[in-house]
Amino acid sequence: MKKLFLVDAYALIFKYYYAFMGRPMRNRAGMNTSVVFGFTKFLRDIQKREHPDLLGVAFDPKGGSFRREIFPEYKANRAETPEDILLSVPYVKRIVEAMCIPVLEVPGYEADDVIGTLAYKGVEAGYDVFMVTPDKDYGQLVRDNVFIFRPRHGGGYEKMGPKEVCAKYAIDSPQRVIDLLALMGDSADNFPGCPGVGEKTAAKLIAQFGDVDNMLDNTADIKGKLREKVESAVDDIRMSKFLATIRTDVPIDLDLDSMRLGEPDEQKLREIFNELEFKTLSDK
C-alpha cells in the first residue's frame, strides 16, 4: 500500500537538541548545528529506509493556537525556547524546502491538528499513514491504516497501531487516549486533569465507565475519596478533555502533488550544508 509520512517537526527538533546537549556540534562561527544535522539525517534515513510516496513536515505556527485563546494557561509553564533551537528552525525549514518536501503550517492550529487532519485525509485517499513523533497524544489518532512511527532511544523506530496503543495504556480503543489525558492532565502542556489521578487510576476509571463523559454523569458510582477528587475537578476534567483532543478539521488540503518525493535542489542544499560545515552531507 502507498505510504504517507507526516513529521511533527518541533517534537523531533527538541529530541535532537537534548540528544546532543552533552556534546553539541558547532561550526566555526560557533553555531550549535546539532539539531539541523540530526533532523537532516533523519529525513534522509526515512526516505532511504521507508520509501514514502508522500512526505510532509508540520510546524507549530507563530502566535500560538486556539487552545491558548480558550485556556490562557495552556503551555504557559514552559521555559523560553533555547536560543540554539530558535537559530536552528529557519535552517531546518530551508533544508526541508530544498529537499522539495512541503512545510505544513496553519495559523491558529498546532502541528498535531494539521497532522491529524491530513492523516485522515490520507487514509481516505488510499494511503497508510505514519505520524512521526515521540508524543503520546497522537495515540488518539491511531486507527486501521494510521500509525505512530516513533524514534527509539538508541536508534531505529517503533510502529504503533491500534493493538499496540491499547496494550500500552490498558484501554480498549485508541480514542480513549483523550480520556486518559483528560483525567491525568499533562504537565508539559499545563492542563490540570484530576489532581491525584495517574495513568493506572485513569485507565481503571475508563474501563469502568467507558469514557470521561459517562464517568462525570455517574460519579455516584465512584468509590471512596476518588469520588471526591473527581467531583471537585469536573470543570478541569472537561477543559482538559477539550485541550487534549487533536483536531481533524483544520482548513488544509492534502496536496498530493506537492508531497510526492521529487529531486532535491542540490545547489541550495550544498549552499546550506557548506554554511553549516556539514562536509559529509555536502559530499553526498
Report on this structure.
This protein is an alpha/beta fold and 284 residues long. It has helices at residues 9-19, 34-50, 66-70, 83-98, 111-124, 162-169, 176-184, 199-209, 212-217, 224-231, 234-244, 256-259, 266-276, 279-283, and strands at 2-8, 54-58, 103-104, 127-132, 146-151, 157-160. It has a six-stranded mixed sheet. A hairpin with a 5-residue loop joins strand 5 (146-151) and strand 6 (157-160). Helix 1 (9-19) crosses helix 2 (34-50) and helix 7 (176-184) packs across helix 8 (199-209). The radius of gyration is 20 Å and the shape is globular.
Spell out the blueprint of helices and strands:
Blueprint: E1 2-8, H1 9-19, H2 34-50, E2 54-58, H3 66-70, H4 83-98, E3 103-104, H5 111-124, E4 127-132, E5 146-151, E6 157-160, H6 162-169, H7 176-184, H8 199-209, H9 212-217, H10 224-231, H11 234-244, H12 256-259, H13 266-276, H14 279-283
Parallel strand pairs: 1-2, 1-4, 2-3, 4-5
Antiparallel strand pairs: 5-6
Helix pairs in contact: 1-2, 2-4, 4-13, 7-8, 7-11
Name the descriptors:
single chain, alpha/beta, 6-stranded mixed sheet, globular
Class from helix and strand fractions:
alpha/beta
What is the ordering of alpha helices and beta strands?
Answer: EHHEHHEHEEEHHHHHHHHH
Low-confidence runs of at least 5 consecutive residues: none
Radius of gyration: 20 Å
